Amino acid sequence: MIKEFNTQTEVSVGLEALWEALSKDFINIVPKVLPNIVKDVQLIEGDGGVGTIFILHFLADVSLSYQKEKITEFDENSHEIGLQVIEGGYLNQGLSYYKTTFQLSPIGELKTLVNLKTSYDHESDIEERVKPTKTSESTIFFLKRIEKYLQLNGT
């Protein structure tokens, strides 16, 4: 049974800049904002919309070697993107399903509210090891790194 965990965070960059980073520049920006975690990101299939598949290669000292993700939702009008892990990553830690959905809303000219929905399922009793709150904290950390990068490099 798929479970959901919802949270939100505010990011001090404009909606369009954050949307661009998450949707169109994801492959290029991830290694820049997570240089101690992600070695590179490669596009495997697609054009950046629904069905696009990419693979994140992690550095040797990270417990995971790679994670393959697929864009399952992409709506430019509502600024919503869903990324489902389809191989590696959390699926190698006992989860049978893992998806993160980002929905962006403007708060002001230079502030964006990000609603995060983490959907997951597991084959065994691993919830103590891979808690949705912990994975959401990782996603918020990632968003804060994007925020810092965009602030330093122009939004």
UniProtKB/TrEMBL annotation:
Domain Bet v I/Major latex protein, chain residue ranges per copy: 3-150
TM annotation in the entry: none
Domain of life: Eukaryota
Pfam families noted in UniProt: Bet_v_1 (PF00407)
Annotated SUPFAM superfamilies: Bet v1-like
Family per similarity comment: Belongs to the BetVI family.
PANTHER family: OS08G0374000 PROTEIN-RELATED, PHYTOHORMONE-BINDING PROTEIN
Listed name of the protein: Bet v I/Major latex protein domain-containing protein
Record organism: Flemingia macrophylla
